[in-house]
Design brief:
heterodimer; A: alpha/beta; 4 domains; six-stranded mixed β-sheet; 20 helices; B: alpha/beta; four-stranded parallel β-sheet
Chain lengths: ~700, ~450
């Protein structure tokens, strides 16, 4: 800690802390454009100029002749900073005047108008009139950087945030400055497409309206928008987002800060992938089949038909859910089947391979990846499957100096910063895992049981080339890097590979034998919640057995929740006598249904979601469901009530209380206790019992 | 004082460009003495000499050399800033072409004193002849053991590399030069107090000494004849020691590089260059285009020295690009041309320089086209104040000074141009110097 003086206030700050942050802690503000707390400070825009001096040994203060940039100035002993003098106000005004002379000032038609840092700073510190009578800079107004991001070069103030984002955070370095001086402009190389999985973030960090979303452009003014804190449900990362809506329609997704999960970033799937909320294919009314067509029905009619087909049918009925169902819905689904229908045939797992058995250690929190020495990413296309985990792994490499190896059968983004890429042949993941384990064992780095040792005969670095297509030297080096402080990271995509149990088992053994940690993140939105809530058959049929059972007549009625196996199992759907399809959108599976139930989307209901690291997060209702669509949990609760009169659940909070009673790990997730950033719930396993069969 | 030949004593002798010729004229005596000395003693000699950076800022050289860690934990680097781009300056070009061994020997001495592993000579891209001359000299030095492993049996190793710039004025700024050398966009980096000094974390974040060509070229003399002897040169000035190369150009009869002792007057320098041509003396830019302009009256009395020029005339020795102008020079169009240069060369990193240089050019452009407005002078001065000291690196200051300096020194010329829409200087000579589109402002 060092002692410094800011505006006459003496305080202590950690050595090296940037003055802009110190000032923020004081509750004061230094205006900025180029500075972003999650990126390296560059001091380009000069908006943050402050007067600076140093205390001399005799107690006097020697001021520096020139103002200094507050965003790059580190706190040091005896530093004296003045942020609020006449000279500084003049400097801020000067910088703003410079920024505005070539800015088009088309705020009335600019998407950023109303939430624009340039507008705000101008209102607070800028000149009210212009002295500029020359021709302004004229440049392309709506240049499509990609199908998602539109660039207005006239509005750009060359702060470099977007360029630095692609260099420092996403790592694709797709943007750079071209030309120099007043002509300088951000651009992609030779105007190719801005191809980044994280391109949407640059729209949010742009301090002016230069980078706008092609999807949101001209669709709303910020003051017309309502916003609700939400959770992205496009994958299992559970990124925190602001769900912006207008007149009951989703219009925009912005990142919301949560240091444990997404910091404040979003991936493009999350940012631009929510248009289905407004799709014309949304289901809005319950439908029942009459002959070869659907007839709109009331919920009561639909429930009656369903109960007639399902109630007390025991093992002859089954239910399968997709990943996009809240914890409350999943819990009641299982309860509905066990209590009202007497069936244990419920499952949520859709990976093609059987899932291996055995306890899995508790998944590592995403944020903890930052502190690891080494990360081996195995058998998963990380940026595709778990984009935000990918950013953390990259951050561990770029900021904490961790080394990263990647083993996957195709080109992927981790290779850009990985120390070694173990590009194996497609399908050779199991062999590669065994070779790595073999190498660790034969080199004396790891010890395993004799049984495992016998299985490893012939698998080592020397045979890796032949067995997996990865060179022996690479395997040897990759195995050597494992050990204390290392993590073997995979996702359930590994289970799509041939011989999943073998790959998974060898990988887990590799981690354990070398003293590394092992983590397998599920990829389905709420797959982790489904595992924790036990949405797997205890002794009944699993996913593939259920679908096979439909074909050979063992299953007489099937209930699909947000799941569509029609591309692989259309025969099963065609054969089963009674099919309930419950979902948000029309799809193929619906064609085979006897009853269709419209479902509310995540933002249209209250509920909690469990992300891949086991963090339970609340998503509050933002907009009303379309038509008569209902949240899944309410449908199950109502069915349950009709089948077995009992105390009803009136709201999801009550369901969560019941969940916490049955599954004590969920105790911290009760609505009254759940913090804004979510709660990590403890558990033994996220990927558990085998689904059996094979797809 | 007459011209003093030290660096340029043998500049016109072609043999001096070969190692044998250089040795025959007493070359490498400085290095031999240095290698026999303690490293700190070498730095002490430079300290005693009072040598200051010849690139423009005049920073004491020994402080840079002394700032490198003494207990070597990292690789140390040496950079020679040979990106001589300041308009009006061409001394380093001649030094590298005609006396390459002075630079090489000087760098070797600096390298020895700072335990450098490698030295990079960053040469302006257009200086092909200089690079070729230097290349040949470096090759010869390697062959005879003056570079490479175990230099002259001392156990000290140094490799020198030549790197050609790609045509950016900004890359002559030391931190932008390092960015460029590392393969990044040539933009300046954070400096003290925002980041450590280059002597702590410079090139590739390793301790680095960066000096101008002329600065290094002084080192052999300092080591050979002693720092105290060197300090006798220019002893009449407050704190400027040794000789300085001045590139004299403009309206003079014998333009070229002249070596003078500090303490010489500007009039003496003008006389060396054959006196003013085509009329009376009107103005002088003493240290390269970025320093404020002086009037003829000021030139009469001015003594050349870092403090002398600054204290009395608020102008600088700079890089020594001394330009004299005769009475037919239109100061407004001269400054328009200067502003155009800085607007084109601004790297674009910081707001004041990026926007301010362009704006100044636009205003001056309008004035020279005859559309000046009342208040333009105040506006120009305001803009220079908003740039000066607010920009990220010195380029902003360098762009603001000449404009502000010219308005202060020749206010009547600006007033006249704005009021009448035409230049105060009406002559065929002035018209010939003006750009074609601005010639209406010079017609009778």
């Amino acid at each position: 800690m060092v002692k410094l003086t800011i505006n006459g206030i003496e305080l202590e700050a950690p050595q090296g802390e940037l003055i802009v942050e110190t000032v923020k802690r004081l509750g004061l503000e230094i205006p900025v454009f180029c500075y972003h707390p999650r990126m390296k400070a560059v001091g380009m825009c000069r908006m943050c100029l402050v007067e600076t001096g140093f205390k001399q040994p005799d107690g006097s203060v020697r001021m520096m002749p020139k103002p200094q940039a507050g965003c790059t100035l580190p706190a040091s002993e005896g530093l004296v900073v003045v942020t609020d003098s006449e000279a500084i106000h003049r400097d801020r005004k000067g910088v703003l005047e410079f920024l505005l002379i070539n800015h088009p000032l088309d705020c009335p038609i600019c998407d950023r108008g109303g939430e624009c840092p340039l507008q705000n700073n101008t209102m607070a510190y800028g000149p009210s009139t212009t002295r500029f009578i020359e021709m302004k800079r004229h440049l392309p107004k709506a240049f499509p950087l990609s199908q998602y991001v539109t660039l207005d070069l006239e509005r750009c103030i060359q702060c470099g945030r977007c360029v630095r984002f692609t260099e420092e955070i996403s790592g694709d370095s797709d943007l750079a400055f071209r030309f120099r001086g007043a002509e300088m402009q951000p651009s992609t190389f030779q105007l190719t497409d801005f191809e980044s999985r994280f391109s949407g973030n640059v729209i949010e960090i742009c301090p002016v309206g230069a980078l706008t979303s092609a999807k949101y452009r001209f669709r709303a003014r910020p003051w017309d928008l309502e916003t609700s804190p939400g959770v992205c449900t496009e994958c299992s990362n559970g990124c925190n987002v602001w769900f912006d809506h207008r007149a009951g329609k989703q219009v925009r997704i912005n990142g919301r800060a949560n240091d444990g999960v997404n910091e404040e970033w979003t991936c493009d799937k999350g940012k631009f992938g929510h248009d289905w909320y407004n799709s014309t294919s949304r289901l809005t009314k319950p439908l029942v089949r009459r002959g070869d067509q659907f007839v709109p029905a009331s919920w009561s009619e639909a429930y009656e038909e369903i109960l007639a087909a399902f109630a007390d049918k025991g093992g002859k009925v089954a239910g399968l859910t997709g990943p996009r169902v809240s914890n409350e819905g999943l819990f009641l689904f299982k309860r509905l089947f066990s209590e009202a229908f007497g069936s244990d045939n419920v499952d949520h797992r859709w990976r093609s391979g059987p899932v291996p058995t055995g306890p899995v250690p508790r998944p590592l929190p995403i944020a903890s990846l930052e502190s690891k020495r080494h990360i081996l990413v195995f058998g998963t296309h990380l940026a595709e499957d778990l984009p935000i985990v990918h950013l953390r792994v990259r951050k561990a490499w770029s900021q904490s100096g961790a080394t990263v190896d990647v083993a996957y059968s195709a080109a992927n983004e981790v290779e850009r910063f990985a120390k070694a890429s173990l590009r194996c042949r497609p399908g050779a993941e199991a062999a590669l895992a065994k070779c790595l384990l073999g190498e660790a064992v034969w080199s004396g780095k790891a010890t395993v049981s004799d049984a495992v040792r016998a299985e490893l005969a012939g698998f080592n670095a020397d045979s890796a080339e032949e067995k997996s297509g990865v060179s022996g030297a690479t395997v040897r080096a990759a195995a050597a890097r494992l050990g204390e402080g290392a993590v073997v990271l995979t996702s359930d995509r590994l289970l799509d590979a041939p011989e999943p149990p073998s790959a998974w088992k060898s990988l887990k053994a590799l981690a354990e034998a070398t003293g590394s940690e092992f983590v397998c993140y599920p990829t389905g939105t709420n797959a982790a919640g489904a595992e924790l809530l036990g949405l797997v058959p205890d002794h009944g049929l699993s996913t593939w057995q259920i679908l096979e059972g439909c074909k050979d007549g063992k299953i007489e009625a099937l209930w699909l929740v947000e799941a569509d196996p029609s591309s692989t199992h259309d025969a099963a759907l065609e054969t089963v006598p009674f099919l309930v399809y419950q979902g948000t959108l029309e799809n193929e599976a619906m064609a085979y249904a006897s009853v269709v139930l419209p479902m509310a989307a995540p933002a249209e209901q209250d509920g909690t979601w469990t992300n891949c690291e086991g963090r339970v997060q609340r998503f509050r209702q933002a907009i009303a469901p379309p038509g008569e669509a209902k949240p899944a949990w309410r449908v199950f609760a109502e069915c349950l009530l009709r089948a077995r009169p009992s105390t009803p659940f009136f709201n999801p909070g009550e369901v969560m209380e019941e969940i916490a009673r049955v599954h004590p790990v969920f105790a911290p997730a009760q609505y009254s206790l759940l913090p804004e950033e979510g709660a990590l719930v403890a558990r033994e396993s996220l990927v558990g019992e085998p689904a059996g069969g094979g797809g | 004082m007459p011209e003093t030949k030290l660096l340029f004593e043998h500049a016109h002798d072609p043999q001096f460009r070969t190692l044998d010729g250089y040795l025959a004229k007493g070359g490498y005596q400085g290095l031999k003495k240095a290698l026999g000395m303690d490293r700190q003693a070498v730095i002490d000699q430079v300290k005693a000499s009072g040598l200051r950076g010849r690139g423009g800022a005049g920073f004491p050289t020994w402080i840079k050399w002394n700032g490198i860690e003494k207990e070597k934990k990292n690789p140390h680097y040496l950079i020679c800033n040979a990106d001589e781009g300041e308009p009006g300056t061409f001394k380093d070009k001649q030094l590298m072409e005609q006396t390459p061994f002075l630079l090489i020997e000087g760098m070797t001495i600096a390298g020895y004193a700072t335990q450098a592993d490698a030295g990079y000579i960053y040469i302006r891209g257009e200086f092909v002849d200089a690079a070729r001359s230097l290349r040949q000299a470096i090759d010869q030095a390697y062959v005879q053991g003056y570079l490479g492993k175990n230099i002259l049996g001392s156990g000290y190793d140094l490799d020198l590399y030549i790197h050609m710039g790609a045509g950016s004025y900004e890359c002559g700024e030391e931190s932008a030069l390092m960015s460029s050398l590392m393969g990044e966009r040539g933009m300046p980096r954070l400096k003290f107090p925002h980041a450590p000094l280059p002597t702590v974390a410079g090139l590739w974040d390793k301790p680095t000494v960066i000096n101008n060509v002329e600065t290094y070229a002084c080192a052999p003399f300092i080591l050979d004849r002693g720092g105290e002897w060197y300090a006798t040169l220019g002893a009449s000035t407050k704190n400027s020691r040794g000789t300085k190369l001045f590139s004299v150009s403009g309206h003079v009869n014998k333009p070229g590089n002249y070596e003078i002792e500090f303490g010489t007057t500007l009039v003496e320098l003008l006389d060396m260059a054959g006196g003013i041509k085509g009329g009376k003396l009107k103005a002088c830019i003493p240290g390269g285009s970025s320093v404020p302009i002086m009037t003829a009256e000021q030139v009469e009395k001015a003594v050349i020295g870092y403090e002398e020029l600054w204290d009395d005339y608020k102008t600088m020795v700079g890089s020594g690009g001394c330009m004299f102008f005769n009475e037919h020079t239109c100061i407004v169009s001269l400054i328009w041309r200067t502003a155009q240069f800085y607007a084109m060369e601004s790297c674009g990193k910081c707001t004041p320089c990026r926007e301010g240089t362009k704006w100044m050019l636009q205003i001056l452009d309008r004035i020279v086209r005859g559309h000046g407005q009342k208040g333009d002078m105040d506006l120009l001065l305001d803009v220079t104040k908003q740039i000066d000291g607010r920009s990220f690196c010195g380029l902003g200051d360098a762009a603001a000074w000449p404009v502000a300096g010219a308005i202060r020194a020749f206010p009547e010329e600006f007033e006249h141009f704005i009021e009448h829409g035409r230049s105060m200087v009406q002559s065929e000579e002035a018209k010939a110097m003006a750009p074609r589109w601005a010639q209406p402002a010079f017609s009778h």
